Amino acid sequence: MATPKNQSILEEPKKHNGRWRMIVCDLDGTLIGPDHKISPQDRRAIQMARDAGLDVSICTGRSAHESLAVIEPLGLCGPAVFVTGATVSDVQTGRTLLRHSLASRLVADLIEFFGGFGHAVLLLVDEENSPGPRYVITSHGPVHAATAEWFLRNKLHCVVNENPDPRMLDHVVRLSIVADPPRSMEIAGMLRRQFDSRLTFLCLKAHLFDCHVIEVFHPNVDKWTGIQELCRMRRIDSNAVVTIGDDINDVAMLRNAALSFAMGNAIHSIQQSAKRVTRSQSDGGVAAAIDQVLAEL
Predict the structure, then answer these.
(1) Does one domain contain both 86 and 145?
(2) Total structural domains within the chain
């Protein structure tokens, strides 16, 4: 794991007398909807929170470079959490400040495991001296339509490589495949049985394509561990953090935060992980949650 190189980008939090110091918000399904834009209502609420002295940050499954254009209207600065907690990056430059890479031997084993099912394996490679992460995909199978759509929508470049350079395997922060049900659930079950404590993984529903994205991370990675690292950099007590999210990769931060809000569009099990439930994304759920926080300062 790398350490911060330039502390000057870290913003000193404003002072106030309330309990809450920072609001950390998920992106997809929470702050943004199908149009991938932040509503004026939510933008105003975030600015009100900042004006009240609260720090506001992002915690998303996206990489920094997949997020910067979306969050640019918020005018945030300093670090935020990306890749489900595997990286902490500067929101203005996208430069990685902290990273948790998978063990190279495990990456090789996972490529063989997933490739054996005929699935193209997508590697997010984040090397210390590079300007940002890059995607490499193996040629074990065809690229899924959901992957192609995501890359097209976000203007991402991907290198197809039948045999990834072994030196690259030391720098993989996320490894994933896209698979259709019911095979996706079978693969997830076998992954759990075969690799167990060697990793953390999620099986996320990609609703537009009726498929699952299986994502693999370092065993210590989730959104809450990413937020704890963010708090250390911001010099904020993690007990003073409010989190807002909507999906399975948000469960850790919803359960562990002293105050958390699940979106109204989240499924029931996700809502049960949070302390409170706010309105849906399309109905200004983030703004409604922030209104409650500001009322309790």
Answers:
(1) no
(2) 2
